[in-house]
Design brief:
- The protein is globular, with a radius of gyration of 22 Å.
- It is built from 16 helices and 13 strands.
- With 454 residues, the protein is an alpha/beta fold.
- The strands form four sheets. Strands 9-8-7-10-11 form a five-stranded parallel sheet, with helices on both faces. A four-stranded parallel sheet has the order 2-1-5-6.
Length: 454
């Protein structure tokens, strides 16, 4: 294994020497394509926003460049190959930015957020952009205020769909922000956005969708990494990037049910590498610290932190529309795995997000109403094998449910396992409550489901 060094470059004439240690493998990533426009979807995002009369700030552009290099490193450096414990990688980034001193002042917070999110050891350093790219924003002489009065992430999942419907039903004009890196997610986003535009055709809301991925082999002789723990850093950065161009303070909505946001490990084996933290309160708090230190007039908010997924469905502001569109949303962690059984891209029905989704829709609408296609359509048809993927998640939920049933008060302790809640001490009772109620929804779904090892 090697410590990995990722060096951002602004074109072929950016030849500043970056020293590396003897145990580091260096990879250069060009931020500029064809020596003229920003690569990796960043230039396209600027063009899309310009059409919408949105002009991100220089620091906003820096943030998206930082996120692109984080995302590239996270997805193209194999944990199995490049870590001593099959998980924790050591990654150093050297990034050209508009104001290195400003970024350096926020560096501790940035590294703390990245370490928490991905479980790696990140070191981030900054240098000045080359003169030719010292000013990228290119603000017009006359800047008209954009029409948008809300900003929301739009992943194509059920929670983000509910978030958008609630905004639109209340007469808001949101700018939706999406990241697409593979076909299934992109298709879901396209379908839902088209349906929403058709239904709310009098509201001039719109979206920014950025396609960003990095080729296999980006890091020489190193395999890619499938876990994508750092994707939410890119997703949040896209939203903030757009927000800096709104000309006013902004609140970036991150719609996520409280059970997933907490993501308490279901069993003792699901600590650390198996427990994601993409919308955990500690992570969102570090983002808000980072925005303040960078002088960005915005905040990141999860408006559904205290609701289960079922409660989100039940309280949606437009129930009839949600019932019509829910099956088009995509919750599955790996929708393409259905191809292994000769199916198309669809929900597997047994991964953690699928089980929470099925439980939520049954809880809100009743059993048999959910029209989503699941590869494992009937969880009660036969005992599920706990030695393969179909039964593992179900058994983990059963363990967590039984643990909570025997000791209901343990919820107040378990919610602290994924990470510190020191930023939200006044919400601890509510967080324990949403955890318990969320498991209760899954408990109802799994009533009568049998698991056993093969």
């Amino acid at each position: 294994m090697n410590r990995q060094l990722i060096i951002g470059r602004y074109g072929p004439d950016d030849q500043v020497i970056i020293p590396k240690s003897s145990d580091e493998q260096a990879t250069e990533v060009d931020i500029v394509a064809a020596n003229q426009y920003l690569n990796h979807g960043i230039g396209g995002a600027l063009t899309e926003l310009k059409v919408l009369n949105i002009f991100p700030s220089e620091v906003g552009i820096d943030l998206l460049v930082v996120a692109a290099l984080v995302y590239g490193a996270d997805t193209r450096i194999s944990r199995a190959e490049q870590s001593q414990d099959s998980w924790t990688r050591e990654i150093r980034l050297v990034i050209p930015v508009s104001n290195p001193a400003l970024w350096q002042s926020a560096n501790e917070t940035l590294e703390r957020a990245l370490n928490f999110l991905t479980g790696d050891l990140w070191k981030v350093e900054f240098r000045t952009r080359p003169e030719r790219f010292s000013n990228i924003a290119n603000l017009p002489d006359t800047l008209l205020p954009p029409v948008f009065n809300e900003l929301s992430l739009f992943s194509g999942g059920l929670d983000s769909l509910i978030g958008v419907i609630d905004l639109l039903k209340n007469g808001k004009i949101p700018l939706l922000v999406s990241h697409a890196s593979e076909g299934a997610t992109s298709t879901a986003q396209d379908k839902l956005f088209g349906q929403l535009k058709s239904h709310y055709n009098q509201i001039p809301f719109d979206r920014l969708r950025v396609w960003m991925s990095f080729p296999n082999g980006l890091v020489s002789n190193v395999k890619a990494e499938p876990s994508t723990r750092g994707r939410s850093f890119l997703f949040f950065a896209l939203g903030v990037f757009a927000g800096t161009g709104l000309g006013t303070g902004f609140s970036l909505k991150v719609p996520e049910n409280g059970l997933i946001a907490l993501n308490v490990p279901l069993d003792p084996l699901r600590l650390g590498s198996n427990s994601t933290r993409t919308t955990h309160p500690f992570y969102i708090a570090r983002w808000n610290d980072l925005l303040g230190e960078l002088g960005i007039n915005g905040e990141i908010v999860n408006p559904y932190w205290n609701k289960t997924k079922g409660e989100m469905v039940a309280s949606c502001e437009n129930d009839s529309l949600l019932r019509r569109l829910a099956s088009e949303s995509l919750s599955c962690s790996s929708p393409a795995k259905a191809r292994w059984q000769g199916h198309g891209i669809e929900h597997c029905g047994y991964c953690l997000p699928c089980l929470i989704r099925r439980a939520a829709l049954d809880s809100a609408w009743g059993t048999g109403v959910d029209t989503t296609t699941y590869t494992e359509s009937n969880l009660k048809a036969h005992p599920l094998d706990t030695l393969n993927s179909v039964g593992k998640q179900v058994r983990s939920f059963q363990y967590a449910i039984e643990r909570l049933r025997n000791k209901p008060d343990i919820a107040k302790l378990l919610i602290h396992k994924p990470g510190s809640l020191s930023d939200v001490l006044h919400q601890l009772d509510d967080l324990a409550g949403v955890y318990s109620r969320g498991l209760g929804e899954v408990d109802n779904l799994l009533d009568g489901v049998e698991t056993e090892p093969s």
